[in-house]
Amino acid sequence: ETGVTQTPRHLVMGMTNKKSLKCEQHLGHNAMYWYKQSAKKPLELMFVYNFKEQTENNSVPSRFSPECPNSSHLFLHLHTLQPEDSALYLCASSQSSLNNQPQHFGDGTRLSIL
Amino acid sequence: DQQVKQNSPSLSVQEGRISILNCDYTNSMFDYFLWYKKYPAEGPTFLISISSIKDKNEDGRFTVFLNKSAKHLSLHIVPSQPGDSAVYFCAASGNGGSNYKLTFGKGTLLTVNP
Predict the structure, then answer these.
(1) Which of A92, A90, A97 has its CA nearest to residue A111?
(2) Is residue B97's pLDDT more than 70?
(3) Whose C-alpha in A92, A110, A112, B62 is 20 to 30 A from the C-alpha of A14?
(4) Local confidence band at B83 (pLDDT 50, 70, 90 cut-offs)
């Protein structure tokens, strides 16, 4: 059983819809991450939060908007996405983003844009 | 430009034999390396890591070897079991500021045949 829970597991949305992905970690970690995994590509880091503060935005388009209300919860708000945004979105957490620690992943949200 | 490369998309091994998964990196600032395992419909699970001050780290059936001069690391699984069948990702990070973020390879699909 993973200590990082993501909902929903699957999401189909149109390009004009607004939806949100949710991530919750039960590991007492202070850093949380969003990754994107497209077919045939490595995991791509999108955002990093450390103690609720965003410390990394990896040149992600503004149609993706993260929110981290506390160290246990992370959201990814989606608005007017494009078909190429269809991918697996993975959330991860670690003790801190400021040192070398393994990151623990959720099972992801499979997003399909129509 | 991929900084972490897993050149073998797939590997097939007989149960009980050794599985060797390889990973090469180009960034000389990387000094912490991890292996993750991923089953279908699940998120990546942390397996084992190694710091650049070591050349070997062992955990049960899993051993990671690091050759800094060749910028190469490998994961050995012995003996291999059918339950080890999964995609294995190599990841690396540096130290200091944004260098702690993980860079992933594309993964190698390991199939262990009974």
Answers:
(1) A90
(2) no
(3) A92
(4) very high
Measured between beta carbons, which residues in chain B are less than 8 angstroms from residue A45? 101-102
Confidence of residue B96 (pLDDT cuts 50, 70, 90): low
The CATH architecture of the domain made up of B4-113 is: Sandwich (2.60)
Residues of A with CB under 8 A from a CB of B: 2, 4, 6, 40-43, 45, 48, 55-56, 90, 92, 97-100, 102-108
Task: Return the residue of B nearest to A33 by Cα.
Answer: B101
DSSP E strand stretches across chain B: 4-5, 10-14, 19-25, 32-38, 45-51, 56-59, 62-67, 72-77, 86-93, 103-104, 108-113
For tokens 């007492």, name the residue. A28
Mean per-residue pLDDT, A74-102: 92
What is the overall mean pLDDT for chain B? 94
Residue of A nearest to B105 (CA): A42
Strands A64-70 and B4-5 turn out to be unpaired
Closest Cα to residue B45, out of A107, A50, A72, A19?
A: A107
Domain chopping of chain B, boundaries? 4-113
pLDDT (tens digit per residue) in A19-72: 999 999 999 999 999 999 998 889 999 999 999 888 888 889 999 999 999 999
